[in-house]
Amino acid sequence: MEFDTIAAISTPLGEGAIAIVRLSGPEAISIANHVFRSPSAKTLLEQPTHTIHYGHIMDPKLDEVVEEVMVSLMKGPKTFTREDVIEINCHGGLVSVNRVLQLVLQYGARLAEPGEFTKRAFLNGRIDLSQAEAVMDLIRAKTDRAMNVALGQMDGKLSRLIASLRQALLETLAQVEVNIDYPEYDDVEEMTLPMIIEKSGWVKKEIEYLLQTSTQGKILREGLSTVIVGRPNVGKSSLLNSLVQENKAIVTDIAGTTRDIIEEYVNVRGVPLKLVDTAGIRETEDIVERIGVERSRQVLKQADLILLVLNQSDELTPEDERLFEAIEGMDVIVVLNKTDLERKMDLDHVKQLAGNSKIVTTSLLSDAGVDQLEEAIATMFFEGSIESGDLTYVSNARHIALLHQAKNTIEDAIQAAHDRVPIDMIQIDVTRTWEILGEITGDTVEESLIDQLFSQFCLGK
Fold it and tell me: How far apart are the first and last CA of the chain?
């Protein structure tokens, strides 16, 4: 499969030390050669692969220097896309890098679509679909653990496991075909059904093992949606600032200071938290604050974790009790704040309302208790788990959905074998499982889904 030559800026727009214009395709080297002039007598067409060259980008029509650059030359197939690749390293700046991009487009390159470089790596067989998706996971990783999971998937950790499951199913289908093709044997069912049950049972067990990691993997990939709730002026914004370690939220003694949703990502012991500070939930006549309170109630429904902040220097109020009712059945950590002040709150009553929820005491004025809170969050979601480097995490929502489908179809095949359903009917479920697993790696995926997935990538990747 041969494509045209594409080009894009592969570094973030804005001022910086370096900006890179990347080209990939059969004409990448010749297009770059049109606009590159080197002090060396050799042209880029004569240079060996995987070398870097100093020179200038010239506008041939105006015979003027556009940029001073370093050009990296990499010939396929030993490149990310398996095509010829040129990377022009410019000075970081909007004007200079755009002028270089416009020149290479003028001489035959096409502006790349979002994710098209990675899409070509997939279509040219360098990586499979799960590895391609891991590229974006790596870019978006917000903690070391999330990055390690993405690196493992990019390295083919999940791909190899899925390939082994598909191979086992393929061997099962092949054996079934052999047994069906030789009907002279009277014991075809006796030979085939136990083998189907054994092989399918192993595949089911491995799928279940992957799904066990999916909750933690999804948290590492997408972050734990964590909502801070409580009455006004109990210390919610102070808690946000303590976890983020900077003053993101305004803190005052005036109730109702926070009137809208404030979101911030924070790394807590390797767990990415999408931290949401809400307006204090209370009855109010202020129309702006009332809108904020209603938004707070809405985000509660979408939260993975609730941090319920109480002011232990006040007595428990009916509003506090209503908050406990609103978050019943959810993952909750109760934060008893303002321990530097005299306690007036009935601790036994709080424990009764909290049930099995963890209770942490803090004095956010001096950040006391924040370490214990962070430890409680990490323990709640990762207690006893194997480190990400030792485990194949499934973190992608698409992969998780497909694994659930595969689990259902392989269970149908096992049940059908136990019920001694005709073998050719059992084959249908085994084949469908094989196809579903292939959608994870892209072996059986539709072209429209491929286009949709890569459209979510950033331009130049």
Answer: 20
The domain over range 220-382 is classified in CATH as 3.40.50.300: yes
Thinking of the domain 6-112, which architecture would CATH place it in?
Answer: 2-Layer Sandwich (3.30)
Given this model, what pLDDT does residue 262 score?
62
Residue type for 6, please?
A: I
238-248 per-position pLDDT tens digit? 888 888 775 44
The DSSP call for residue 171 is H
Do the beta carbons of residue 333 and residue 275 sit within 8 Å? no
Report yes or no: 39 and 97 within 8 Å, Cβ to Cβ. no
pTM of the model: 0.69
Q: What are phi and psi of 143, to 5 degrees?
A: -140, 165
Using alpha carbons, select from 330, 304, 309 the residue that is nearest to residue 319: 309
Q: Tell me which residue has tokens 């410019």.
A: 90
Please state, in angstroms and rounded to a whole number, the distance separating the CA atoms of residues 148 and 244: 22
**What is the arithmetic mean of pLDDT over 291-319?**
76
- In single-letter form, the type of residue at position 166 comes to R
Give me the torsion for CA of 292, 376, 241, 139, rounded to 10°. Answer: -90
pLDDT at 260 over 50: no
Alpha carbon distance 424, 433 (integer Å): 15
Sign of CA dihedral 185, 189, 191, 192: positive
pLDDT bin (cut points 50, 70, 90) of residue 257 is very low
pLDDT band at 258 (very low <50, low <70, confident <90, very high): very low
Task: Point out which residues pair with 224 in neighbouring strands.
Answer: 273
**Domain spans in the chain, listed from the N-terminal domain onward:** 6-112, 131-213+394-454, 220-382
Residue 57 in contact with residue 65, Cβ under 8 Å?
A: yes
Contact (Cβ atoms closer than 8 angstroms) between residue 56 and residue 68: yes
* 73/59 Cα distance (integer angstroms): 20
Token pair for 241: 């600032």
**Does CATH number 1.20.120.430 belong to domain 131-213+394-454?**
yes
Confidence check: pLDDT of 183 > 60: no
